[in-house]
Every structure is written in structure tokens, then in C-alpha cells.
Amino acid sequence: MPLDHRRLQGPEESQPPEVWAAAGGSGEVPEEEDAAPRDPCALRPLFARAGLLSQAEGSAYVELSGGTKVLCAAWGPREAAEPGGAAAAAGGGWLLCEFRRAPFAGRGARWRPGSAAEREAERDAAAALREALEPAVRLARYPRARLAVSALLLQDGGSALAAAISAAALALADAGVEMYDLAVGCALCRPPGPAAAWMLQPGEPEERRAVAQLTVALLPALNQVSAVLGGGQGSPPDSWAEALRLGLDGCHRLYPVLRQSLLRAARRRDAAAAATATATTA
């Protein structure tokens, strides 16, 4: 039976919902008025796992403490009849990115599934995802081929695009796609106020109140910025420069967590292959 590559199948191994129970958390997202102030330079705890879906050639799941959950799958390379993009025009491959938001992803008022606002937001997020990932992938190694990445936002607790960038990079690497480095995403926002400081990895209530937002994508091993996305008002140029420095530092701090998840997936795959070979020989 052919697979539907437009739909992310469920993982064979489920993750218990109490991901943060070991850290002493209750697992519930605090209400906006009950949320305690936190250090603006502190990173929200991140959980990452690669290699969950057998239906995809590569997959990854990223969750941020506070309720952001993203599942990504990657396929390719596949022959492209009509490749597009600058890399394809130069003889390289084509990276196709898709971003979808589950109807139950956000709290409060929800978009009607298939509405124009939802489709436009998903197209913008997919374009931002492609912009952040293309510099990390060696598209020249895949002439006239298409690589596909699909990101599904299961729950939006803030910093969703940054989490999707990290998850999509993990999925591509898990699929065996040649890459220069993992693209790591980190989000920031600045609350209202003349002396307000930029905050790393904001939650959904903090993003809602923010007057300026920024998402940085970095290739840490190369120390190369692959994308800077965002906008806002009321911030002088020096403030944006400080936000960029803070975001790059956050990407460097997240990088070891993503690398370890990729290494663990490779060890699991090698152990499964060895067990299969042993059973076949026996």
C-alpha cells in the first residue's frame, strides 16, 4: 500500500506526557497571570529525539518546556521533474518545506481549518523554514533531486518557528542527507517598555505582549548565521544588535542537546541493525 507522504504517521514508540516530571514540574502550562518572572537570558528546557517514524526516511521531535511541541519528517532525495529555487538553477537540488499547524495547537480562539489566514501563516512559516535550512544542506550533491521536509506544530507554547527549525534540521540529518552542519533555531522577544530587555525563547503569553520578535538560525560548527527573521517597533539599532548576540549565544548552548539526540538515534539504529543481522544468521 503506498504511503501518504503528505501526512505524518504516528510514532511507533510513544513519549509519556510527563516529560518534565523528572525536573519537578507539574506538566501543566501556567496561566499568564500566574507565570513567575524568569531570567531573560535563561533557556527553556529542551527535549529532542530523532528517528521516531519508520514511515519517513528521517524524523525528529522537539519539545520546549512550557508546551511547544513540533514533529518533523524528511524524505529524499527524489527525482524532481521541475526543480525550482536558486540552488536548482545552479545545478543543485531543491529543498521543499511544509509547515502545518494542528487545529488544537493553540489555546483560546482557533483558526477555522483551511481558512485564508491559516494558509497564509503556514506558507510564511514554510518559507522561513526553507530560508533557514537551505544554507545547511549540501544541495549541490543532489542535482535535479528534491528533498522534502514536513513540520507539524502539535502545540504552540511560544518559539514555535525556532523549534521547527531545529527539529527539521535533525530530521534531515536523521535521513542521511549531507549537511554542512545542523541548523539551530532560537527565538527572542522584547516586551513593551523603554528599558525592557530581550528575552530568550519566549512563551506564548510573552510573544503575545511583545513589541518586537526575532528568530535566529545558526550553523554553530561553522559559526555562520543561516537566517535572521523577525520584526517589530520601538527598538534602536543597538538593541537589535544585542538581541542578535543573545540569540547566537542561545543557539550555541542548544547545539550539544541536538547533537546528542542525533547520536543516540544513530546508536539505536546500529543496535537494531546488529540485532537483525544476528537473528538472520541464527
Protein described:
By secondary structure, this protein is an alpha+beta fold. The chain has helices at residues 86-89, 116-133, 160-174, 204-209, 237-281, and strands spanning 46-50, 58-64, 68-79, 94-101, 145-155, 184-190, 199-200, 212-219, 224-232. The strands form 2 sheets. The chain has a 5-stranded mixed β-sheet with strand order 1-2-3-5-4. The protein has a 4-stranded antiparallel β-sheet with strand order 7-6-8-9, with helices on both faces. A hairpin with a 4-residue loop joins β8 (212-219) and β9 (224-232). α3 packs parallel to α5.
Summed over residues and divided by their number, the pLDDT gives a mean of 81
Number of separate strands? 9
Low-confidence stretches: 22-34
Q: What is the overall shape?
A: globular
Q: State the helix count.
A: 5
Largest sheet: 5 strands, mixed
* Gap between N and C termini: 31 Å
Computed Rg: 19 Å
Q: From N to C, what is the helix and strand string?
A: EEEHEHEHEEHEEH
Q: Which strand order does the major sheet show?
A: 1-2-3-5-4
Key terms for this structure?
282 residues; 24% strand; 9 strands
Nutshell version of this structure?
This protein has 282 residues and is an alpha+beta fold. The chain contains 5 helices and 9 strands. The strands form 2 sheets. It has a 5-stranded mixed sheet.
Question: What is the fold's blueprint, element by element?
Answer:
Blueprint: E1 46-50, E2 58-64, E3 68-79, H1 86-89, E4 94-101, H2 116-133, E5 145-155, H3 160-174, E6 184-190, E7 199-200, H4 204-209, E8 212-219, E9 224-232, H5 237-281
Helix pairs in contact: 2-3, 3-5
